[in-house]
# Entry
Amino acid sequence: MSQTIEEKLQELGYDLPTPPAAVGNYVPVLRTGNLVVTSGQLPFIGKEIVFSGKLGTELHEQQGIDAARICVVNALAQIKACIGDLQQVSRIVRVEGYVHSAPGFQHQPQVLNGASELLVELFGDAGRHTRVALGVSEMPLDAAVQLAVWAEVSD
# Structure
């Protein structure tokens, strides 16, 4: 019997949280047809941003990688809240990632590899996705990373 996505997450040391609430006038996740898209997810654990500050000054690359992985876990919690069961995810389509970057920091792709690698660990080849990796000078709530996930789902 194969493991569920949530069992794999637990094996990797993550618990699927209650999905974080929106912090503005938007919805945290939306389904249209067989596509589910999350709003930007921050590295919240509970109600706390666990990695804040800029990569390249206050934070080092590994902390950014860890933040990106927490963002993915929060995105998966949003997707589960929308569709009921992560086993319905047939493909991760896209990850859009934003890294709070100090001037000169250019390792945004390496930081977001934390998110991408986690998705492949969980979904196998169906976790391989397109991606945007951008550095930004300011971030909501001073978060280190923000990302959105697009997933194709089956009924």
